[in-house]
Amino acid sequence: MTRPIDLNADVGEYADEPRRAVEAALIPLVTSCSIACGGHAGDETTMRATARLARRHGVGAGAHPSYPDPAGFGRRRVAIGGEELARALAAQLAALRSVLDGEGMPLQHIKPHGALYAESARSPALARLVVGAAAAAAGRPVLVVGPPGSALEEATRAAGLRFAPEGFVDRRYRADGSLVPRGEPGAIIEDVAIRADQALTLARGSAVATLCIHGDTPAAIETATAVRAALEAAGFAIRRMT
């Protein structure tokens, strides 16, 4: 039986023309995208341009909220109280919802970015805060995307929301299933063929529903092309997460 798999990309993180050209070529190759919404990157202009690209190509649009940390690109932990963080997440999600509503598009999913993604995977309290913000902002049943078997998955299911477990095709994993931190040597897989092999390995496992290709990783377009070809040759159907 053909098994569906979603391909997603983290996008809307840059306003310069070369990066926007990469996203314009990448978005048609995936089925879902997570749009930066002001925490680590992104503003109304980039959100709207990215949403329109997604709509044009039938790609599901999701939110990519983060710690409010543009200087650190959301990749470091920020000392911030729970109430303040909840307000920051609510503002980011509301900003993207406003753009999507204006474009006649639903909010398909919510996927934390960077340090917020990693820490909400480990911390039940932070996971509950993220899921609470997602539930309040969505306005409709929404998917939460994150690592399989994580605190984020547990909190999502406890809240009665749907969870889409995710794997990364361009990042190396530790033996315990966590990602090698970006600052460590070898954290990023450089070879496109190895990325495609990792995509197949992850897809053939039972835990993953969506595979991420980072839009800011070198050779992102080549990676998406190779991953799609490898998955389709192996009998997978590339479809939006549901």
Distance between the termini: 18 Å
Q: What is the beta-strand fraction?
A: 15-25%
Average per-residue pLDDT, rounded, comes to: 93
The percentage helix is: 40-55%
- The structural class is alpha/beta
In the CATH hierarchy, the architecture is Alpha-Beta Barrel
H-E string: EHEHEHEHHEHEHEHE
> Radius of gyration from the CA trace?
16 Å
CATH superfamily: Glycoside hydrolase/deacetylase
As residue ranges, the low-confidence spans are none
CATH class: Alpha Beta
What form results from the Cα inertia axes?
globular
DSSP helix count? 8
Q: Strand order, biggest sheet?
A: 1-2-3-4-5-6-7
Q: Any idea how many domains?
A: 1
Beta-strand segment tally:
8
- The fold-level CATH name is TIM Barrel
Major sheet: size, sense and barrel closure?
7 strands, parallel, barrel
Describe, in plain words, how this protein is organized in 3D.
By secondary structure, the protein is of the alpha/beta class. The chain has a single domain, classed as TIM Barrel. The protein contains 8 helices and 8 strands, in the order βαβαβαβααβαβαβαβ. It has helices at 17-26, 44-56, 82-102, 114-122, 124-138, 151-158, 192-204, 220-233; strands at residues 3-11, 32-36, 60-64, 109-110, 143-146, 162-168, 210-214, 236-238. A 7-stranded parallel beta barrel has the order 1-2-3-4-5-6-7, surrounded by 6 helices. α3 packs parallel to α5, α4 (114-122) packs across α5 (124-138) and α7 packs across α8. The longest helix has 21 residues, at 82-102. The chain is globular and about 45 Å long. 47% of the residues are buried. The mean pLDDT is 93.
